[in-house]
Specification:
The chain is 7% helix and 52% strand. It is mostly beta strands and 298 residues long. The chain has one domain: Tachylectin-2, Chain A, CATH 2.115.10.20.
């Protein structure tokens, strides 16, 4: 079992500072946002917003306080599910799901030389990953996260999902070498850990973090194929290769909580930041859409 204080910190939304239906200063819903510290002070977030049926664009915003978000740039069109990491040289890597609106998605990686380039939406280079686990003309590979990257970006470790046999999303991992060569493998142990809890629908987005020296994932799973109201969030222990459903408690009792991301902000007052998407099919009044909650850590 994971440490009780970790489970409580992740699950007690009512005891944290929370924003439901989070939007930037231009009114865009900040769906599937990932938050990191801004090296210039405050915070950065990447997120997507719908622009039509089955179509999304990816954006970046800044915030001084995790509550007010100022839109800064569109990073990509016809793209979704972004994830961002800061690099030691002041640059940034963004991984996202490219495609949509009838085109089977794929993983795309964007490399930004510095903060100004990120906030201008000016990537220095882009890599579009070929499909390796399913046929590109039929099935999706997407919803990436960046596990790790070498300082020179010569090796980037990326998680993603693939549409197994055209029925359900399952977990995979890829390595981008030299920003040119892409190799992948399936992650059946993660799948099995969630299937143990009755997850028969999709297993999708994930985010990695370390708590007291132990590696975990937050990961979404859907108990019923096609059942939007059955999305749940799970905690996966990497070393033990086991998972547990997280009984996340919102003010209204929303149940369908997915697209999780977590950031542990360092500093004089360490802070846990969690983001998720509350599907309207299982959301309480006023809680549907993107959610962000944070709490200080003792």
């Amino acid at each position: 079992m994971p440490e009780p204080d970790l489970v409580e910190a992740l699950c007690d939304v009512t005891g944290a500072t929370v924003a439901y239906d989070l939007r930037d200063d231009q009114g865009r819903a900040m769906d599937t946002l990932k938050v990191i510290a801004d090296p210039a002070g405050g915070y950065l977030a990447v997120y997507h917003c719908g622009v039509g049926r089955g179509r999304f664009d990816v954006h970046v915003a800044t915030s001084p306080d995790l509550a007010r978000w100022a839109w800064r740039a569109r990073l990509d069109e016809l793209a979704s599910q972004p994830h961002i990491v800061a690099m030691p040289d002041g640059g940034f890597l963004v991984a996202l799901e490219a495609g949509g609106a009838g085109t089977p998605p794929w993983v795309r990686v964007l490399d930004y030389a510095g903060r100004d380039d990120l906030l201008a939406g000016a990537a220095a280079r882009r890599f579009d990953a070929p499909h390796t686990l399913v046929p590109r003309r039929k099935h999706a590979e997407g919803t990436p996260n960046i596990y790790a990257a070498t300082p020179d970006r010569s090796r980037i470790d990326i998680g993603f999902h693939y549409w197994r046999r055209g029925r359900v999303d399952r977990q995979a991992r890829g390595v981008l070498t030299g920003f040119a060569d892409w190799s992948t493998r399936r992650e059946p142990r993660i799948d099995a850990a969630l299937e143990h809890w009755g997850v028969r629908g999709n297993i999708g987005g994930r985010d990695a973090f370390t708590w007291k020296g132990r590696e975990y994932l937050l990961i979404e799973g859907q108990t019923e194929p096609g059942g939007w109201h059955t999305w749940r969030t799970y905690l996966y222990d990497v070393a033990a290769q086991t998972a547990w459903p997280l009984p996340i408690r919102t003010h209204g009792g929303s149940a369908a909580i997915a697209n999780p991301a977590v950031t542990l902000l360092e500093g004089p007052r360490p802070t846990l930041v969690v983001t998720a998407y509350l599907f309207h099919a299982g959301a309480a009044d006023g809680e549907g859409g993107p959610m962000l909650y944070h709490r200080p850590l003792s």
